[in-house]
Design a protein that fits this description.
With about 525 residues, the chain is of the alpha/beta class. It has a single domain (about 5-505), classed as TIM Barrel. It contains 18 helices and 15 strands. The strands form four sheets. An eight-stranded parallel β-barrel has the order 1-2-3-4-5-7-12-13, surrounded by five helices. Strands 6-8-9 form a three-stranded mixed sheet. Helix 4 (about 90-100) runs parallel beside helix 6, helix 8 packs parallel to helix 10 and helix 15 runs parallel beside helix 16. About 50% of the residues are buried. The structure holds 4-nitrophenyl beta-D-glucopyranoside.
């Protein structure tokens, strides 16, 4: 009996501990009583390859990610694929239910290019793919949820990848700018009567850096000093093409924007060199994409153009590795975004580091930027090596964008934190509270930020990290064919913030209370443990 009581005690202490933990509330100001405006839009985000599954069903063609996971499976941390993922192709109604449960106003999802155009080109449209997104969009609208639709979240049709993809040249007869424009036209035609918020391309920096610079993502090219810039150049022109097609060929009354990622950077010391490193950080990560679209003069920052030209000349190139835009192209890109869709996750401390030179065998954009970066170990650390929480960084970034770019309309389209599986995700709760506080600070400072999407609605295929890293407000059991979605503590906290429009640091929900299966599972474990103990002892 005594043994059983001891076991019971240990067991109940562990439950109490887990459910009463409450994260600290980092906030630069006291926002506890402050409310989000009634028209501020809350949402959650996902992307097609990361959640849909049905990789070769419903008439879908191959994307370059389908190709990567079958030709280089060892490159994915746990050798997994997005073949099934959260299986949203079949369970999209359940996705809409959980969005409804959360009470969000908007859902940001992406359309898989090869699900609509299996071979990439519009001469063959896959009606089953169109039906899938029609069903999803209609289900969202029936539930009062506004779709924010990303046209391209890294799923280039493999067919177009093999024809040069993001490395084709705008002067080629066949090029990605035309291909992307033609694809965008199909999307406006099929869905534009109901979709009024279009996001053209997700994160040129991350896509080009990982896909064409350092070979971490599809199509795994290693060309950090040339291919990286070519990819970005094409993305800017392709985005502008999609924008012009919408404005010139359609009158659907919606808006079109681009999704840019930007983290915050602060100087390591108060030296002039480190102040320069901060300027360089923003030029090389953000200005390179932001200025051509959002600055009044257009084009990429002159400081960046000069730096890369000088570095290229010193390396023996006859022309800059950053190919210049023509005057016509500069005009074509300027002003082509009705809002900025901003993805933000983390911050860096940066310092001038000219000796990056030599770290890489070939020239690279990191080498061109001449900066070193690190984090303060006291920042909230996730399980992704690149992701540390520092909420003031978001506040600072939003104010920086307002001041530098004449106060564009901003939607935060991604912000989130990674963890291991488990429903008690106190660090994620701390992260979201901190970052939403930062948004309140920015609203106070007059930043025109109109909405916020948590990344992610649910666990999904985290690219080269496979399923080893979880970003979901909802946990997804990747071993269960039904892929049950279960709210984590962070989902319940986010839901309450959306409902009350206030961040209550005391609110401490218990996710297990909402999931009866936990009680059954833990009771079983308990009974089995007792039985085993009785046998052994
Ligand atoms: C974004 N970084 O990528 C993507 O849009 C999502 O598909 C992805 O799942 C999510 O963030 C989480 O990773 C990023 O290194 C990848 O700073 C890396 C970084 C930022 C964003």
């Amino acid at each position: 009996m005594c043994r059983i009581e001891f076991c019971l005690l240990v067991f109940s202490i562990s439950i109490i501990d887990a459910s009463t933990l409450n994260g600290a509330q980092p906030s630069s100001r006291n926002n506890e009583l402050k409310q989000f405006p009634s028209d501020f839009l809350f949402g959650a985000a996902t992307s097609s390859y990361q959640i849909e599954g049905a990789w070769n069903e419903g008439g879908k063609g191959w994307s370059m990610w389908d190709h990567l996971v079958r030709t280089a499976p060892e490159h994915i941390a746990d050798n997994t694929t997005g073949d099934v993922a959260s299986n949203s192709y079949y369970f999209y109604k359940r996705d809409v239910q959980i969005l409804k449960e959360l009470g969000v106003n908007i859902y940001r999802f992406s359309i898989s290019w090869p699900r609509i155009l299996p071979y990439g080109r519009p001469d063959y449209v896959n009606r089953e793919g169109v039906d899938y997104y029609n069903n999803l969009i209609n289900e969202l609208l029936a539930n009062d949820i506004t779709p924010f639709v990303t046209m391209y979240h890294w799923e280039l049709p493999q067919n177009l990848n093999e024809r040069g993809g993001w490395l084709t040249r705008d002067t080629d007869d066949e090029n990605i700018i035309d291909w992307f424009g033609d694809y965008a036209r199909v999307l406006y035609r099929e869905f534009g009567d109901r979709v009024k918020h279009w996001l053209t391309i997700n994160e040129p920096y991350i896509h080009c850096n990982h896909g064409y610079g350092y070979a971490n993502h599809a199509p795994r090219r290693s060309s950090p000093g040339e291919g990286y810039y070519e990819c970005g150049r094409n993305i800017l022109l392709a985005h502008a093409r999609a924008y012009h097609i919408y404005k010139e060929e359609f009158s659907q009354g919606g808006q079109v924007g681009i999704v840019l990622s930007c983290d915050w950077a602060m100087p390591s010391t108060d030296s002039e060199a480190d102040a320069q490193a901060v300027l360089d950080y923003f030029d090389f990560h953000f200005g390179i994409y932001m200025d051509p679209i959002f600055s009044p003069q257009g084009n990429q920052p002159q400081s960046l153009i000069d730096r890369i030209a000088n570095m290229s000349a010193a390396q023996g190139y006859s022309e800059s590795r950053l190919r210049p835009f023509t005057e016509e192209q500069i005009d074509y890109m300027r002003g082509t975004s009705d809002f900025l869709a901003l993805n933000h996750y983390t911050s860096y401390i940066v310092y001038k580091n000219e000796s990056v030179n030599g770290m890489y065998v070939v020239p690279s954009h990191n080498d061109d930027a001449q900066i070193g970066m690190y984090r303060d170990p006291s920042w909230l650390q996730s399980i992704s090596p690149w992701l540390y929480g520092y909420p003031a960084g978001l506040h600072n970034l939003l104010v920086y964008i307002k001041n530098k770019y004449n106060s564009p309309t901003i939607y935060i389209t991604e912000n989130g934190f990674s963890s291991n599986p488990g429903l008690i995700d106190n660090d994620r709760v701390t992260y979201y509270r901190g970052y939403l506080n930062a948004v309140l600070d920015a609203l106070d400072d007059g930043v025109d930020v109109r909405g916020y999407c948590a990344w992610s609605l649910m666990d999904n295929f985290e690219w080269a990290a496979g399923f080893t890293v979880r970003f979901g407000l909802y946990q997804v059991d990747m071993n269960d064919p039904e892929r049950p979605r279960t709210p984590r503590k962070s989902a319940l906290v986010y839901k309450e913030i959306i409902r009350s429009r206030v961040i209550d640091p005391e609110y401490n929900p218990d996710p297990y209370e909402t999931d009866g299966s936990y009680v059954i599972k833990t009771s079983c474990v308990f009974v089995i443990t007792l039985a085993l103990l009785n046998i052994v002892l």
